[in-house]
Amino acid sequence: MDKLRIMSVFGTRPEAIKMCPLVRELAAREGVESLCCVTAQHRQMLDSVLEVFSLKPDWDLDIMTPRQTLSTITSKCLTGMDEAIDTLKPDMILVHGDTSTTFAGALSAFYHQVPIGHVEAGLRTYDKYSPFPEEMNRKLVSSLADLHFCPTANNRGNLLREGVTGSIFVTGNTVIDALKTTVREDYRFSTDELNHLPYSEKKILLVTCHRRENYGEPMRNIMLALRQLAEENRDVELVYPVHLSPVVREAVDRYLRGAPRVHLIDPLPADEMHNLMARCYLVLTDSGGLQEEAPALGKPVLVLRRETERPEAVEAGTVKLAGVVQDDIVTMAQRLIQDRNAYAAMAHAVNPYGDGQACRRIADAVLWHFQRGERPADYQG
Ligand code: UD1
Ligand code: UDP
Questions:
Q1: Which sequence spans correspond to the domains of the chain?
Q2: Distance between CA atoms of 96 and 94, rounded to whole angstroms?
Q3: Which residue has the least CA distance to atom 12 on ligand 2?
Q4: Counting atoms of ligand 1 from 1, which one is nearest the CA of 287?
Q5: How many A from CA of 15 to the centre of ligand 2?
Q6: Mean pLDDT, the chain, whole residue set
Q7: pLDDT tens for each residue of 99-120
Q8: How far apart are CA 217 and CA 255, in angstroms?
Q9: What homologous superfamily is domain 192-348 in, according to CATH?
Q10: Is the C-beta atom of 66 inside 6 A of ligand 1?
């Protein structure tokens, strides 16, 4: 029997962190040739993840330009994917989540009539413009996909209500598989500054912020809130690996740089980031991935957004929506910094997003689709 050619397509940092373990899992399966096509929507931040997971792509579209627009990302991906698909001839294409790479990868697969598996399917806010453009990207991909790999039962419920066609699996999120390979108690950071942070004497606040819907006024408010928190709390150190987006870097330079107790550093390799998260006190972020990782590590999260498509950890009590108003963010963070009971109520490890077996379930489901194995049992949460 010919080997199945399963091609994973991704381009940004979070997609890479969540897809590299799956590319590996597929490569370990007899009867599968695991192919990897990167768009490089992100260049340096993608390459950093590929290095951590020792993965060499089979195809690289190398599309990134500074201050790229949504249209240029999408059109460059579409054009580049034609040649990748014609040359690599995949039997199935796997895309992840909700980025422009994801949408263009799925659309291209559809144009070539290649079956599509959507990893991290079914997340929704039901607000077309928030997150922008991700909410619409993932809805469009749900219409195109044949196999939907939902992290949680709640995500499956969203797809069932929308009446999507194809097969739906509840698998857990592959980010938990990734975390299991990166976090270690005896970890030493190659960014030496992180080895010397006062983890026991002070409260380390880990921050990230990059979302397009936060550009402008919301990002200004967030930066000013972070500045106020650092200025008013001597027992706090704020560590912020700043995204390479020039829009984000300008906001950071304008409103946050120079504040006391603030460490502005370059984006961290995934293993460094995961281990820093495991040692920090509190996470403030607008990132999707951090909302999944931090709860698994027992770290409270304040989400710097108005909504979230990840309600599971909010329900479990480890994540709270802080919004994008300066006073609200400061008040909620101050409470967690000063009130031990409020902190303890949130700082307990819960794992609504997976058990580290998501990649195994997804690989099983792919083989099942081609009648080469049993249908995997759903992740029960
Ligand atoms: C993208 C995704 C978003 C995801 C985020 C993860 C879309 C529309 N957005 O947003 O869903 O949450 O990635 O980080 O797909 N840059 C570099 N080097 C890099 C990466 C980025 O220089 O390695 C700069 C470039 O100038 C680029 C800009 O950052 O133009 C913005 O990157 P882009 O991928 O367009 O959007 P993000 O906001 O990062
Ligand atoms: N991350 C990283 N280095 C950093 C910041 C984040 O490796 O300096 C990881 C983080 O642990 C998570 C992922 O990147 O796994 C989240 O990516 P991002 O916040 O860029 O995108 P989102 O999840 O919001 O789509």
A1: 4-173+354-370, 192-348
A2: 7
A3: 289
A4: 12
A5: 9
A6: 97
A7: 999 999 999 999 999 999 999 9
A8: 12
A9: Glycogen Phosphorylase B; (3.40.50.2000)
A10: yes
For the segment(s) 4-173+354-370, the CATH number from 3.40.50.720, 3.40.720.10, 3.40.50.2000, 3.40.50.970 is 3.40.50.2000
**Which pLDDT score is estimated for 145?**
98
Catalytic residue among 112, 212, 220, 263: 212
Please check whether residue 14 is in contact with residue 20, taking contact to mean a CB–CB distance below 8 angstroms: no
For residue 191, what is the DSSP state?
Answer: S
Q: Is 63 close to ligand 1, i.e. is its CB under 6 Å away?
A: no
Q: Is pLDDT of 350 > 90?
A: no
Asked whether 347 and 317 are in contact (CB, 8 A), the reply is: no
Do 4-173+354-370 and 192-348 come out as alike in CATH topology? yes
Express each pLDDT in 245-298 by its tens digit: 999 999 999 999 999 999 999 999 999 999 999 999 999 999 999 999 999 999
Ligand nearest to the CA of 18: 2
Q: What residue ranges line ligand 2, CB within 6 angstroms?
A: 13-14, 17, 208, 210, 241, 267-268, 270, 273-274, 287-290, 293
Q: How far, in Å, from the CA of 78 to the mean position of ligand 1?
A: 17
Write down the pLDDT at residue 209.
Answer: 98
Q: Which ligand places an atom closest to the C-alpha of 182?
A: 2
The bound ligand whose nearest atom lies closest to the alpha carbon of 41 is 1
58 among known catalytic residues: no
d(CA 154, CA 336): 28
Residue 308 in this model has a pLDDT that exceeds 90: yes
Ligand 2 centroid–CA 361 distance in Å is 24
CA separation for the pair 9, 19 (Å, rounded):
9
Quick one: which of 35, 71, 67, 21 has its CA closest to 173?
A: 21
Nearest atom in ligand 1 to the alpha carbon of residue 73 is: 35
pTM of the complete model beyond 0.90: yes
* Cα dihedral across residues 125, 126, 132, 138: positive or negative: positive
